[in-house]
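Appendix B. One record, verbatim.
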Amino acid sequence: MGLTEVYWDHHIPLPKLAPARAKVAVALVALLCFVNSYDGEFVFDDSEAIVNNKDLKPETPLSNIWRNDFWGSNLSSNTSHKSYRPLTVFTFRLNYLIAGGLHPVGFHVLNIVLHAVISALMIDVFAILIGGLAYDEKGRIRNHAPKTSLLAAVFFAAHPVHTESVAGIVGRADLLCALFFQLSFLTYCKAFNKGSDRDDKFSVQWVVVSLLLCAAAMLCKEQGITVLGINAAFDVLLICNVNVYELSQRLLLRKNPLDVSEMLRMGLLTRLALMGLGGFLMLYARWRIMGTGPPAFTEVDNPASFAENIFLRIVNYNYYYSLNAWLLLCPWWLCFDWSMGCVPLIKSAADWRMVWLLLLWCVLIGLISQALCSQDSQRRRTLTLGLVLLVVPFLPACNIFFRVGFVIAERVLYLSSAGYCLLLAYSLGHCCCRWSKYRKLLCVTTLALLCVYVVRCALRSHQWRSEQSLFISALAVCPLNAKVHYNVGKNLADGGNTTAAVGYYREAVRLHPTYVHAMNNLGNILKEKNELIEAEELLSKAVSIQPDFAAAWMNLGIVQNSLRKFEAAEQSYWNAIRFRKKYPDCYYNLGRLYADQNRHVDALNAWRNATVLKPEHSLAWNNMVILLDNTGNLGQAELIGREALRILPNDYTIMFSLANVLGKLQKYKESEGFFLHALRINPNAASCHGNLAVLYHRWGKLELAKKHYELSLKLDPEAPGTRDNYNMLRRKLDQLKRSTP
């Protein structure tokens, strides 16, 4: 018994490839597009999700990934983003363990490999959606891979909109979600393996496995649940061969009512009920895990969702849809962030951008009409399934069911782009079939488009290799985006170029006058430049806009302390601690304020609080030792120094301070040991050589004292007091020589 029930597609003439060779070819295209990002850095959101995420560290219990969100915050916290992706975080943790630390190469390589695998599997997905199901003599599904499915998979492998998901490590969530999405769909198809008797039974077990894979996709990213919609559409259109247009006519005109018994016989209602129940249980579990309800986004995150006028809100949502469609059609203008003025709101019906909305819906209505009314049944199925694959995965990001925390995010288009690639490849195949005399021109155009895609992917993935190139590339796309200017400024400041950073921070504040983080960072730089008056004004404005901004309160306290506004500074520090209970750096700065006021007990208490909250706070430990040393409490200073070194055994500064204390206590041998250990850690420390020389001087080891005085003066000729001590030693040595017979 041969193959039966195969639906053929219009196709572009391409070389025939065996399925395995076709998959390898698609995977190679995917690798070619993104391989130059393999040795990139951790950029943008990678810092929060990976570098600063304690859930990746081996010392953190593995169970934490099931209680925390994607960024490492507890799901029950009001500040949590509620993005529950434990399987994705688990793969990050595996990367960390295998590489023995935070080495970005392994993270990037896995992302690229995942995209290559997903692109290869897309051949099977597209082949089923375009060609239907074929059965061999044993009743098993045999996926016929027409050339259009190969072309669609190549388009998918090379689409530039995927760069953020592949070259940005946090895009792993989209990649894993897509992989389990595909496996869930392909497993659902296996439920229809038919026996030789060709009965209409299906395998409940495979449907259940498909649901479990859907749950896995959802544990990688919330979008994974949308595979249930794809499975349902596939079942209705291909398995049950339902004509949607005729079905809608029956329902609207109430003629020829549906034959429910036929649907029951085919098992459609049973399968839909299983998927509906599974989807409900997944959503219910997700809601319970979320804890305190959905995350609270601000107007900056998604300004359209805060528009009071419902008409304008709907208009702007549709404008966002058109921009997403444009990114699929022409993925040249890509940006890591589309918020904060990058997409100005439409505020009236007279705005010229309304044209894009109308154009989007004209195209969609045209496609829908073809999908419903075409005389070609195979075209109806392919267009309908292509539209379903385009639209359904995008639904969680469309603001219809709940408010999302972004304007546009290229990552959310990873799955939806599969529907676009299917429609594009099928349309090109249809054109080749209909206008055969232009076939060569269409083939050349298709090849040129693929080349443009590959080049654009290579260029864009290169921009994702470092934060500097990524942020600067966004200036040309979104010059009105305050966050872009902020990130460029932050990157420059982190690299030490604070002068250039000031200009970008000022522009961020100009574009977004309530951008408190830009004010805070700008205030910090001005503080370092000793422009204290403007720094105080900026930081005061930041805390007036956002009263619970603890970091800005602390920085304001530092500026006020420098301006000798001690009472105001103390109040600012306590405000910071009130809004962030565990704030060791603020306690440290509060201690410095008290020390400046000679409130020694208060200073010691503040620094002790800092070390309790953060035991490895070296500066707080060291300041306690120095203050106790300066006030003559040498015994207590020794105890604090030894306690600090038990926690920080290789801290040079604490070793140096403790050595000074031991020297004053005439514990010369121990003091010498700490000085020498400190010099092994930092051999070019002039002050350490100078103080060790003083120790030897007091101890009577004058030649060693002379040696270390000279080393200290060589490293720092202007070292205060060292020259005088050295001259004193030389006079003493001269006296000893003269007195020696």
